[in-house]
Amino acid sequence: MAQRQVNGWYAYCMKFNRVALAVALCAVPSLFAQRPGGAAPSAAAAPAEAAPMANPLPADAHVDQSIHMDGKELKYTATVGTLPVKNEEGKVVGEVVFTSYIMEGANRPVTFAFNGGPGAASVYLNLGAIGPKRVDFGAEGQSPSDPATMKDNPGTWLDFTDLVFIDPIGTGFSTSLVNEAESKKLFYGPDQDIAYLSKIVYDWLVKNGRLQSRKYLAGESYGGYRGPRLTSYLQSQIGVAMNGLVLVSPALNSTAGDRDLSPVPWMLTLPSIVAANYERQGKLSDATMAPVLDYVRGEYASDLLKGNSDPQATARIVKKVTELTGLDPKFVKESGGRLETQSFLREEFRETGKLGSRYDPNVTAYDPYPYNPTQQTNDPILLSIIAPTTTAMVDWVTKTVGWKTDARYNALSDEVGRLWDRGGRNGAFGGAASANDLRVAVATDPKLRVVIAHGWADLSCPFMGSILTVSQMPIMGDPTRVQVHEYPGGHMYYARLGSSLALRKDVMEMVSKH
């Protein structure tokens, strides 16, 4: 298995399906060991001797730009800059790089955006989803050697909110100034990640005089795990309240039982597999998926729990799953209607010699080892997105903005994945901490609104996890305050313009409520 496949968020998502991690929410929380009184450790908790940087990061740089949107010209200032991370002795132990897009105007909201991994820079949300410019990546038929051309993004949120994209330490150009052991203590774990990034959000607001602005957080994948935790930490520890949360393909909860005993892991992935099949047939919609969700939460779950206590249960499962997925009946029968994700992604396209992507089964690549019993190459989407995003971002930062540095840009860092603390009582990244913090944040602030947005066919963070999680939350006031939306596509559904525009519409509606 390729190194990137076993590192970072992708490795977590692999484990997510294989170890029956029932995502009652698609995120990852309470693994994080709490200090007495419930406060998470901060970067200040471990003093470290700062080491001099080999290539000091430059001063903030700005450039005025514009895009055309709906027949209008939007003028904005793009800034690439840094914010220091200090320990409790006041020594700078790291530098966080941000990219901001600010328009003139009174009472404009500001949105802070994070990607996931952990180990991913914010470039994917920036140049793929919500920034003013976009680069094509993550769709079927695209090649990593295609020109990384930036163009105006009709799906941007810039017309209704300023945008600040934050690269955690070890991603993008953000860097630690201490040794590896201290970096691990200060930055590379679920609790310390939340503590220092919350302070970065606060520091940006103070530096730019924006504490009184309406404030939103957006996070993708593990960034979606970060969202509720950052919101709760900012509320309770920093004294800054968010107005809204947007969780893009989030992974909220890694807590689950064994997949041989719990039906939940199979309940999470089957709807996304069916959605991929329906999309290929041109019949994917809310209406066609509704009976699928009813089946999964009803007869499918019941028959899985019955096991061999009902001799007809497995036969019913195999018949219905074959009908819904269009898969080879022999394959479905051999799996007992319990479709393990990687096996499905190889089986579905075996006759063409290709592999489907965990992030979107309808995005494929040739399998270089088609006769191996297990997949030996990286995910098709991961193979294709690093080059265009890195090329476009570095070229824009260094040439257009004029922020010159010799430092390497890490769109997806293996080192962060290697150093990340996966220990603790709840496994990979924190059990139910994010799901718990989501509940607490919504309960604490009766005006907080949340949009959880998934691609129908995402098998890395399936939409069913968020549906199950939110359905278990009490209704705290307005039942529409926490909404789950699904769009055509997979993990990076925003690579499809129609889904990007649908996300923009739903987020605009949320912001308009404040």
Secondary-structure topology with pairs:
Elements: H1 3-6, H2 8-18, E1 61-69, E2 72-86, E3 92-102, E4 110-114, H3 123-130, E5 133-134, E6 151-152, E7 162-167, E8 175-176, H4 180-186, H5 190-207, E9 215-220, H6 222-238, E10 244-248, H7 264-281, H8 286-306, H9 313-325, H10 329-334, H11 341-347, E11 354-356, E12 364-366, H12 380-401, H13 414-419, H14 433-444, E13 449-455, H15 463-471, E14 482-487, H16 497-512
Parallel strand pairs: 4-7, 4-9, 9-10, 10-13, 13-14
Antiparallel strand pairs: 1-2, 2-3, 3-7, 3-8, 5-6, 11-12
Question: What features would you describe in this structure?
Answer:
By secondary structure, the chain is α/β, with parallel strands linked by helices. It has two domains: 3-255 and 386-512, Rossmann fold, CATH 3.40.50; 264-377, no CATH class. The protein is 38% helix and 16% strand. It contains 16 helices and 14 strands. Strands 1, 2, 3, 4, 7, 8, 9, 10, 13 and 14 form a ten-stranded mixed beta sheet that branches. Helix 5 (190-207) crosses helix 6 (222-238), helix 7 packs antiparallel against helix 8 (286-306) and helix 8 (286-306) packs antiparallel against helix 9. The longest helix is centred in the last third of the chain and has 22 residues, at 380-401.
Assigned CATH class of the largest domain:
Alpha Beta
- CATH fold category name of the largest domain: Rossmann fold
Number of strands: 14
Radius of gyration: 22 Å
Query: Which structural category do the helix and sheet elements fall into?
Result: alpha/beta
